[in-house]
Amino acid sequence: MDLTRAEFANEAFYLAFESKDFAAMDHLWSESREVICIHPGWPALIGRAAVMQSWKSILGNPAQGAVSFYDAEARPLGTGVCAVVCYELAGNATLIATNVFVEENERLRLVLHQSGYCSNPPPPPR
């Protein structure tokens, strides 16, 4: 798998998140495979309907602050599957996130997003 494509897909995910673009977020998630999303402090969301409803709520919340990312590293997990691990800046918190992408219809689609608090992250770039 081309890891540059995975990094680009990861960037598209965070762009959709930052711009609160639900249509773009919806377009990023797999439509043919099981999906899982674990937001910080939330229970696991399993299945596309539950995951997309969570994003609709988050992105539609006017109080939702900006989220950005840094230090993304893509790693292959097998044929047509890769993970991108990165750090998220959300308000005053730094989180660590894993985003797993699969090949679907000749493009990369998310099947897993998991984000949680990180007590000792590397510093963000200046």
General description of the model:
The protein has 126 residues and is α+β, with helices and mostly antiparallel strands. It has a single domain, classed as Roll (Nuclear Transport Factor 2, Chain: A). 29% of the residues lie in helices and 40% in strands. The protein has helices spanning 3-19, 22-28, 48-59, and strands at residues 36-38, 45-46, 67-78, 81-90, 93-104, 107-117. It has a six-stranded mixed sheet with strand order 2-1-6-5-4-3, covered by helices on one side. Helix 1 (3-19) packs antiparallel against helix 2 (22-28). The model has no long low-confidence stretch (mean pLDDT 95).
Amount of helix: 25-40%
Q: Which parts are unreliable, with pLDDT below 50 for 5 consecutive residues or more?
A: none
Strand order, largest beta sheet: 2-1-6-5-4-3
How many helices? The count is: 3
| Structural class label | alpha+beta
The tally of beta strands, per DSSP, is: 6
Cα radius of gyration in angstroms: 14 Å
Please tell me the CATH architecture by its name.
Answer: Roll
- What percent strand? 35-45%
Q: Tell me the major beta sheet.
A: 6 strands, mixed
Q: Roughly how many Å apart are the termini?
A: 30 Å
CATH class: Alpha Beta
Which geometry do the CA atoms define? globular
Q: What's the structural domain tally?
A: 1
What name is given to the CATH topology? Nuclear Transport Factor 2, Chain: A
H/E element sequence: HHEEHEEEE
Average pLDDT figure: 95
